[in-house]
Amino acid sequence: MENIITSKDNPVIKLYQKLSASKKERLQYGLFVLEGLRIVQDAITENAELSELIFTASAYEKYADTLFQADLRNTRAVVISNELGKKIASTDSTQGIFAICRMIADGPPLFEENGRYIILHCIQDPGNLGMIIRTSDALGIDGIILCGCCDLYSPKVIRSTMGSVFRANIFIENDEDEVFALLEKNGVSSSAAVIDKDAQLLTECSFGGSHAVFIGNEGNGLPAEVSRRCGRRIIIPMNGNINSLNAAMAAGIIMWELKKKGGNVCG
Q1: Cα atoms in the Cβ-side hemisphere of radius 13 Å centred on 47
Q2: Which end of the chain is least crowded, N or C, by CB within 10 Å?
Protein backbone atom coordinates (compact mmCIF):
# COMPACT_ATOMS: atom_id res chain seq x y z
CA MET A 1 0.00 0.00 0.00
CA GLU A 2 1.06 3.58 -0.70
CA ASN A 3 2.28 5.79 2.13
CA ILE A 4 -0.78 6.82 4.10
CA ILE A 5 -1.42 10.54 4.49
CA THR A 6 -2.75 11.55 7.88
CA SER A 7 -2.36 15.34 7.87
CA LYS A 8 -5.11 17.71 6.75
CA ASP A 9 -2.31 20.09 5.74
CA ASN A 10 -1.17 17.83 2.91
CA PRO A 11 -1.31 19.85 -0.37
CA VAL A 12 -3.68 17.42 -2.10
CA ILE A 13 -6.06 17.40 0.85
CA LYS A 14 -5.98 21.18 1.14
CA LEU A 15 -6.75 21.50 -2.57
CA TYR A 16 -9.58 18.98 -2.34
CA GLN A 17 -11.18 20.88 0.52
CA LYS A 18 -10.82 24.22 -1.27
CA LEU A 19 -12.49 22.83 -4.39
CA SER A 20 -15.24 21.22 -2.35
CA ALA A 21 -16.08 24.43 -0.50
CA SER A 22 -15.64 27.24 -3.02
CA LYS A 23 -16.96 28.01 -6.51
CA LYS A 24 -14.25 30.65 -6.81
CA GLU A 25 -11.53 28.05 -6.21
CA ARG A 26 -13.14 25.64 -8.68
CA LEU A 27 -13.15 28.29 -11.38
CA GLN A 28 -9.61 29.38 -10.57
CA TYR A 29 -8.19 25.88 -10.90
CA GLY A 30 -10.63 24.54 -13.49
CA LEU A 31 -11.16 21.54 -11.22
CA PHE A 32 -13.96 20.00 -9.18
CA VAL A 33 -14.31 17.09 -6.77
CA LEU A 34 -16.03 13.71 -6.83
CA GLU A 35 -16.98 11.45 -3.96
CA GLY A 36 -18.19 7.86 -4.14
CA LEU A 37 -17.42 4.69 -6.08
CA ARG A 38 -20.23 5.01 -8.63
CA ILE A 39 -19.50 8.53 -9.79
CA VAL A 40 -15.74 7.93 -9.89
CA GLN A 41 -16.35 4.83 -12.02
CA ASP A 42 -18.61 6.85 -14.33
CA ALA A 43 -15.93 9.52 -14.67
CA ILE A 44 -13.36 6.88 -15.62
CA THR A 45 -15.74 5.16 -18.06
CA GLU A 46 -16.51 8.47 -19.80
CA ASN A 47 -12.80 9.37 -20.01
CA ALA A 48 -13.00 12.35 -17.68
CA GLU A 49 -9.60 13.74 -16.76
CA LEU A 50 -8.80 12.82 -13.15
CA SER A 51 -5.68 14.36 -11.68
CA GLU A 52 -5.91 12.63 -8.29
CA LEU A 53 -7.73 9.55 -7.12
CA ILE A 54 -7.93 9.54 -3.33
CA PHE A 55 -8.66 6.44 -1.25
CA THR A 56 -8.97 5.90 2.46
CA ALA A 57 -6.82 2.99 3.62
CA SER A 58 -9.82 0.66 3.90
CA ALA A 59 -11.25 1.75 0.53
CA TYR A 60 -7.89 1.17 -1.18
CA GLU A 61 -7.91 -2.46 -0.09
CA LYS A 62 -11.52 -2.90 -1.20
CA TYR A 63 -11.73 -0.97 -4.49
CA ALA A 64 -8.27 -0.19 -5.89
CA ASP A 65 -8.01 -3.32 -8.04
CA THR A 66 -11.42 -2.63 -9.60
CA LEU A 67 -10.70 1.01 -10.45
CA PHE A 68 -7.16 0.46 -11.68
CA GLN A 69 -8.31 -1.94 -14.38
CA ALA A 70 -8.82 1.22 -16.44
CA ASP A 71 -6.01 3.26 -17.97
CA LEU A 72 -5.21 5.79 -15.25
CA ARG A 73 -1.62 6.53 -16.19
CA ASN A 74 -2.20 10.30 -15.84
CA THR A 75 -3.90 9.97 -12.48
CA ARG A 76 -2.02 10.01 -9.20
CA ALA A 77 -3.27 7.63 -6.50
CA VAL A 78 -3.28 9.01 -2.97
CA VAL A 79 -4.06 6.97 0.15
CA ILE A 80 -5.25 8.75 3.27
CA SER A 81 -6.19 7.57 6.73
CA ASN A 82 -9.77 6.52 7.39
CA GLU A 83 -10.08 9.37 9.90
CA LEU A 84 -8.97 11.96 7.34
CA GLY A 85 -11.44 10.51 4.86
CA LYS A 86 -14.28 11.20 7.27
CA LYS A 87 -13.11 14.79 7.65
CA ILE A 88 -13.11 15.59 3.94
CA ALA A 89 -16.28 13.65 3.13
CA SER A 90 -19.49 15.53 2.32
CA THR A 91 -21.67 12.49 3.06
CA ASP A 92 -22.30 10.85 6.42
CA SER A 93 -21.56 7.32 5.23
CA THR A 94 -18.65 7.85 2.86
CA GLN A 95 -17.23 4.97 0.82
CA GLY A 96 -13.80 6.52 1.18
CA ILE A 97 -13.25 7.19 -2.53
CA PHE A 98 -12.63 10.74 -3.77
CA ALA A 99 -11.23 12.32 -6.92
CA ILE A 100 -10.15 15.67 -8.31
CA CYS A 101 -11.43 16.09 -11.85
CA ARG A 102 -10.83 18.67 -14.57
CA MET A 103 -13.90 20.61 -15.63
CA ILE A 104 -15.63 19.30 -18.72
CA ALA A 105 -14.78 21.29 -21.85
CA ASP A 106 -17.43 23.96 -22.31
CA GLY A 107 -17.52 24.42 -26.05
CA PRO A 108 -20.51 25.69 -28.04
CA PRO A 109 -23.64 23.53 -27.84
CA LEU A 110 -23.94 20.87 -30.50
CA PHE A 111 -27.24 21.47 -32.29
CA GLU A 112 -28.60 18.60 -34.34
CA GLU A 113 -31.34 18.24 -36.92
CA ASN A 114 -34.60 17.63 -35.03
CA GLY A 115 -32.70 18.03 -31.78
CA ARG A 116 -34.42 18.35 -28.41
CA TYR A 117 -33.05 20.87 -25.92
CA ILE A 118 -33.88 22.45 -22.58
CA ILE A 119 -32.81 25.88 -21.39
CA LEU A 120 -32.66 26.09 -17.60
CA HIS A 121 -33.11 29.68 -16.46
CA CYS A 122 -31.90 30.58 -12.96
CA ILE A 123 -32.41 27.15 -11.40
CA GLN A 124 -30.93 27.63 -7.92
CA ASP A 125 -31.43 24.37 -6.05
CA PRO A 126 -28.45 22.01 -6.57
CA GLY A 127 -30.63 18.92 -6.11
CA ASN A 128 -33.07 20.10 -8.76
CA LEU A 129 -30.32 20.91 -11.24
CA GLY A 130 -28.65 17.55 -10.72
CA MET A 131 -31.93 15.66 -11.05
CA ILE A 132 -32.84 17.49 -14.27
CA ILE A 133 -29.46 16.62 -15.77
CA ARG A 134 -29.90 13.00 -14.73
CA THR A 135 -33.42 12.85 -16.22
CA SER A 136 -32.27 14.48 -19.44
CA ASP A 137 -29.61 11.79 -19.77
CA ALA A 138 -32.18 9.05 -19.21
CA LEU A 139 -34.60 10.49 -21.78
CA GLY A 140 -31.98 11.25 -24.41
CA ILE A 141 -32.29 15.03 -24.50
CA ASP A 142 -29.75 16.36 -27.00
CA GLY A 143 -28.51 19.32 -25.00
CA ILE A 144 -28.92 21.51 -21.93
CA ILE A 145 -28.09 25.20 -21.72
CA LEU A 146 -27.67 26.66 -18.22
CA CYS A 147 -28.48 30.36 -18.00
CA GLY A 148 -27.94 31.99 -14.60
CA CYS A 149 -28.16 28.69 -12.70
CA CYS A 150 -26.34 27.54 -9.58
CA ASP A 151 -22.84 26.13 -9.99
CA LEU A 152 -22.83 23.00 -12.14
CA TYR A 153 -19.66 21.82 -10.40
CA SER A 154 -20.79 22.11 -6.78
CA PRO A 155 -20.53 18.78 -4.94
CA LYS A 156 -24.31 18.67 -4.38
CA VAL A 157 -25.08 19.10 -8.08
CA ILE A 158 -22.43 16.59 -9.16
CA ARG A 159 -23.68 14.04 -6.63
CA SER A 160 -27.30 14.52 -7.73
CA THR A 161 -26.46 13.87 -11.40
CA MET A 162 -25.40 10.31 -10.49
CA GLY A 163 -22.74 10.42 -13.22
CA SER A 164 -24.94 11.93 -15.94
CA VAL A 165 -22.86 15.11 -15.88
CA PHE A 166 -20.21 13.16 -17.81
CA ARG A 167 -22.65 12.05 -20.52
CA ALA A 168 -24.97 15.02 -21.03
CA ASN A 169 -24.22 17.79 -23.54
CA ILE A 170 -24.20 20.76 -21.15
CA PHE A 171 -23.40 24.34 -22.12
CA ILE A 172 -23.24 27.36 -19.81
CA GLU A 173 -24.33 30.71 -21.26
CA ASN A 174 -25.47 33.31 -18.76
CA ASP A 175 -26.32 35.98 -21.35
CA GLU A 176 -29.99 35.62 -22.37
CA ASP A 177 -29.43 37.56 -25.60
CA GLU A 178 -26.67 35.15 -26.57
CA VAL A 179 -28.91 32.15 -25.83
CA PHE A 180 -31.65 33.43 -28.15
CA ALA A 181 -29.04 34.31 -30.78
CA LEU A 182 -27.71 30.74 -30.69
CA LEU A 183 -31.20 29.32 -31.11
CA GLU A 184 -31.96 31.61 -34.04
CA LYS A 185 -28.62 30.94 -35.72
CA ASN A 186 -29.18 27.18 -35.54
CA GLY A 187 -32.85 27.20 -36.50
CA VAL A 188 -34.11 26.01 -33.12
CA SER A 189 -37.68 27.04 -32.26
CA SER A 190 -38.59 27.64 -28.62
CA SER A 191 -41.31 27.29 -26.02
CA ALA A 192 -41.58 28.83 -22.57
CA ALA A 193 -42.87 26.65 -19.73
CA VAL A 194 -45.16 28.91 -17.67
CA ILE A 195 -47.97 28.87 -15.13
CA ASP A 196 -50.68 30.68 -17.09
CA LYS A 197 -54.17 29.43 -17.89
CA ASP A 198 -53.95 31.10 -21.30
CA ALA A 199 -50.86 29.11 -22.30
CA GLN A 200 -51.17 26.10 -24.58
CA LEU A 201 -51.50 22.71 -22.92
CA LEU A 202 -48.32 20.69 -23.15
CA THR A 203 -50.33 17.56 -23.92
CA GLU A 204 -51.85 19.21 -26.99
CA CYS A 205 -48.59 20.43 -28.48
CA SER A 206 -46.19 18.71 -30.83
CA PHE A 207 -42.60 19.72 -31.43
CA GLY A 208 -41.50 19.85 -35.05
CA GLY A 209 -37.90 20.30 -36.16
CA SER A 210 -35.31 21.32 -33.59
CA HIS A 211 -36.93 22.64 -30.44
CA ALA A 212 -35.92 24.03 -27.06
CA VAL A 213 -38.05 24.53 -23.97
CA PHE A 214 -37.18 27.20 -21.40
CA ILE A 215 -37.75 26.14 -17.77
CA GLY A 216 -37.60 28.77 -15.04
CA ASN A 217 -36.62 29.31 -11.45
CA GLU A 218 -38.16 27.19 -8.66
CA GLY A 219 -39.86 30.11 -6.94
CA ASN A 220 -40.57 32.64 -9.67
CA GLY A 221 -40.67 30.70 -12.92
CA LEU A 222 -39.57 32.37 -16.13
CA PRO A 223 -39.42 36.19 -16.25
CA ALA A 224 -42.09 37.64 -18.52
CA GLU A 225 -39.45 39.24 -20.74
CA VAL A 226 -37.93 35.79 -21.40
CA SER A 227 -41.20 34.00 -22.08
CA ARG A 228 -42.28 36.77 -24.49
CA ARG A 229 -39.21 36.11 -26.63
CA CYS A 230 -40.10 32.43 -27.07
CA GLY A 231 -42.21 31.19 -29.96
CA ARG A 232 -45.04 30.11 -27.66
CA ARG A 233 -45.94 29.52 -24.01
CA ILE A 234 -46.88 26.07 -22.74
CA ILE A 235 -48.29 24.76 -19.47
CA ILE A 236 -48.49 21.33 -17.86
CA PRO A 237 -52.18 20.55 -17.27
CA MET A 238 -52.89 19.95 -13.56
CA ASN A 239 -55.95 18.84 -11.64
CA GLY A 240 -57.61 20.31 -8.57
CA ASN A 241 -56.03 23.24 -6.79
CA ILE A 242 -52.44 22.35 -7.74
CA ASN A 243 -50.96 25.08 -9.92
CA SER A 244 -47.25 24.30 -9.84
CA LEU A 245 -44.78 21.44 -9.55
CA ASN A 246 -41.25 20.97 -8.28
CA ALA A 247 -38.87 22.25 -10.98
CA ALA A 248 -37.22 18.87 -11.49
CA MET A 249 -40.59 17.10 -11.74
CA ALA A 250 -41.94 19.67 -14.19
CA ALA A 251 -38.77 19.43 -16.28
CA GLY A 252 -39.08 15.65 -16.39
CA ILE A 253 -42.66 15.81 -17.70
CA ILE A 254 -41.73 18.42 -20.28
CA MET A 255 -38.70 16.46 -21.46
CA TRP A 256 -40.80 13.31 -21.82
CA GLU A 257 -43.29 15.12 -24.06
CA LEU A 258 -40.50 16.88 -25.93
CA LYS A 259 -38.87 13.57 -26.84
CA LYS A 260 -42.13 11.75 -27.52
CA LYS A 261 -43.70 14.17 -29.93
CA GLY A 262 -42.75 15.36 -33.40
CA GLY A 263 -44.54 16.70 -36.43
CA ASN A 264 -45.93 20.16 -36.82
CA VAL A 265 -45.78 22.54 -33.91
CA CYS A 266 -49.21 23.51 -32.63
CA GLY A 267 -50.26 27.06 -33.36
Answers
A1: 1
A2: C
